[in-house]
């Protein structure tokens, strides 16, 4: 093969062995920059893998501790509801334990009162509904025997026998599902009791938590710990308020439709719809299905179809308009993020995950925005009045006080200052 001389390039009058390439001639900097880019990509990939591994480990640990974390989370949500009346009583001189016990007992009495109002109505009409259900089955049988199905009585009997045989063949599986469901109900009741007990301690000793946590973090971190704790608590409180508003709208419109159509058990179905709204998507769907079923049994197919249309319309209003807009504005989250949070939570942890998906996403967003503002030097720990929290107190306990932001976090190092009057030691 002849040696290439490189002559004969574009604009070269001499005859050469080949034509010049269209690519530019490489420079020495190209190799250096390629190695630098490769090094940067490798470091970023390693960091990404480490972060992914850390998230997997954290998720595994949280999954193992879920039986403990769930009552704590539910207790915090209960505490957001019970804290305002408890704070009112404490400001009027009530002891913390007595105020917390009274508010918790009133909360339980309210739940018990709702059950006491609903139970007699259900007991009074369940017999009539059962008779109407049997009559409805007979009507369905007669309807199937007529055109266009023309199913005779013998064929219906065969279908019933097949259904019975199928149930008997899967009796063990059904028993297993029933045992699993009973176990889930038992665990749910245990978690509920633990959550209520923890809620009592949260509203009784809650004001001591932030000073204790800030004291463990240190003087420089104390303002950030206090400010971020306040923001996360406000986010949880906002979630409960907004879910209650969504549930009220659902219960009002569905209950109004049931009342106009003269469907029985209006109040129980409205209450069920209200509490079902605290479990996004699934809770309201189940409540709507009960309403349609009762309308079908009591009023017939036409009224049941109308009730189904009302439930579907209200659910569309809630899922696509009301809930994303209200939660998006309150949490400063885009509607798509709200929907994705509900979807991700339900896929990861079922109904509880769907219930906790939005507040968890909101807490993540609050924490991210706070850290971002700290990095940008915006001082999110400074309140609107120009003060920030600082740790004070002595060996008897730590308290949080407010100090002008100009003093800086170092002002919190005055740890030997006497606590203000009436402050609860940690």
From TrEMBL:
Location within or outside the cell: Cell membrane
GO cellular component: plasma membrane
Transmembrane segments: 40-60, 66-85, 97-119, 184-203, 244-261, 267-293, 300-317, 337-368
The keyword Transmembrane helix appears for this protein: yes
Region (Disordered): 1-29
Keyword hit for Transmembrane: yes
One GO-annotated biological process of the protein: transmembrane transport
Topological relation to the membrane, as annotated: Multi-pass membrane protein
Keywords, sorted A to Z: Cell membrane, Membrane, Transmembrane, Transmembrane helix, Transport
Compositional bias of kind Gly residues: 1-11
UniProt-listed InterPro entries: AI-2E-like (IPR002549)
Protein family per UniProt: Belongs to the autoinducer-2 exporter (AI-2E) (TC 2.A.86) family.
The protein's name in its UniProt record: Predicted PurR-regulated permease PerM
Lineage of producing organism: Bacteria, Bacillati, Actinomycetota, Actinomycetes, Geodermatophilales
